[in-house]
Amino acid sequence: MRASDKAYAALREDIIEWRLAPGTVLAEVEQSERLGVSRTPVREALSRLSAEGLTTAAGGRGVVVTDISLDDIDELFELRETLEGKAAALAAKRGEHAVFEQLHAELLRAPEMLNDSDPARHDYYALVGRLDDAIDEAISNSYLAQAMRSLRVHLVRVRRLAADDAERLHAAAAEHAAIAEAIAAGNPRLAEAATTLHLHRSLSHVKATHTPH
Length: 213
Fold this sequence. Notes:
- By secondary structure, the chain is an all-alpha fold.
- It has 2 domains: 3-65, Arc Repressor Mutant, subunit A, CATH 1.10.10; 70-209, Up-down Bundle (Four Helix Bundle (Hemerythrin (Met), subunit A)).
- It has helices spanning 3-16, 28-35, 39-51, 70-94, 97-108, 118-139, 142-161, 166-184, 188-209, and strands at residues 55-57, 63-65.
- The chain has a two-stranded antiparallel sheet with strand order 1-2.
- Helix 4 runs parallel beside helix 8.
């Protein structure tokens, strides 16, 4: 892995997981020492992160981690509903139903993963990631898939921001199962409706638990 890719991956994960909080100044010298690379790869990594909207130039302060406000969350979910609703409908039309039948079965068992241990929750998020990947592949639209991948970077930050309480996680698992079931059934309208319902409930939960910085 190139030094710039290493720096980018490390900084990106630290930002997404909130180890680098909004407003944190990312000084090139400090980050190069922390990551064990020279300043040039760090500079390249910061440029890529700024293109994704995870960092921004802040005048004389240099590059800082961007914040996520309630307004940002509303805008993200407006775009998410448009993109993901369309994607679910296309997946129902174009996807391999057997793939989503298997995902549906696994998502029905998801509550078994949702105990209080972090590794178990990681398994659940990985399963949801597989559903996302399956939808991306099924839609056969590289532009739409790329737009959703770019959006998900910010959605992971939002998810970490909200309280992942057991009740909401169990409800979300059922909602994801309903999406997979509708796609497996080849029903575009139901797949889009199930996605819209999931996003509405997710947004309500995030806004109810979000504490502005």
